[in-house]
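name: query_chain
kind: protein
chains: 1
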Amino acid sequence: MKRALNVIGSLCVLGVLFWWADAQAVIAQLRGVCTGWVAAAVAALTGVTALMAKRWQMLARSFDIEIDYRRALGEYYLSQMVNFVLPGGVAGDVTRAVRLRQNTTLVRAAQSVMADRILGQGVMFVLLGGALTVALLWPGGLNWPKAAWAGIGFGALAVVILGFVARGDHGTGRFLLEVGRLFGQMRLCILSLVIAGLLIFSFYACARAAGTDIPPAGWLTVIPLVLSAMLIPLSVGGWGWREGAAAALFPLIGAPVAAGIATGIVYGAAMMLAALPGLYFAWRVAPVPSPAHQH
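structure:
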């Protein structure tokens, strides 16, 4: 039922966006899509998956879990495919944790997956928060509304709350302390920065494919905000919310609403193309035996 509601929600949001921006204008943007830029976006997203699998493998060792790279890559591709068909954007993470339970306890497996997600999103949010702060303190680039300060304040408050929780002598506190320690590992941070850079470039490439050139002032502000909209657990594959965020933010860079919607659609298509290797892993990877059948 929830899946059906999320699919309907994504379709309704897209329908409203097409009506608001004029469907003909969006279609006109899509007709002129440059396949070269789409290929660049797919290549970048493929690199993102490969690097995220490596990061997860490294993080798993911090939780006393050994997983070879080929297995990590296959599980990552499978989780992406799950996220494309199930609502919420986290079903794939749950699948990774459940399938990894043969190597460790389910709790440990889930912690490695959660740490991977927190580290990746945390680095992206740090880049976004820093760039937004600079843009608001030294205007001259994009004309950001003052309400953007509220978002920065909310992010800072969330960090403070997490800091207090981490001080507690309980499972959640110890886990957050471990994640904080992982943020201090140079190799993991550099890897996460490269991943964030490739994600930003992939969206930029999709914008170029749809005929829009996002200026440098929007690389660390507009693009991360659009990508963050995909985290809203009320859609399937980020459809609808991604296009809505792009439609709302593209006027800041002097682009029409239709350009934002078209870019979001191209990005969604590029993500699906980049996830196609998951079909191979779905065919080749044997089902993980349940604990009851392990000896």
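note: Residues 291-295 have pLDDT under 50 and may be disordered.
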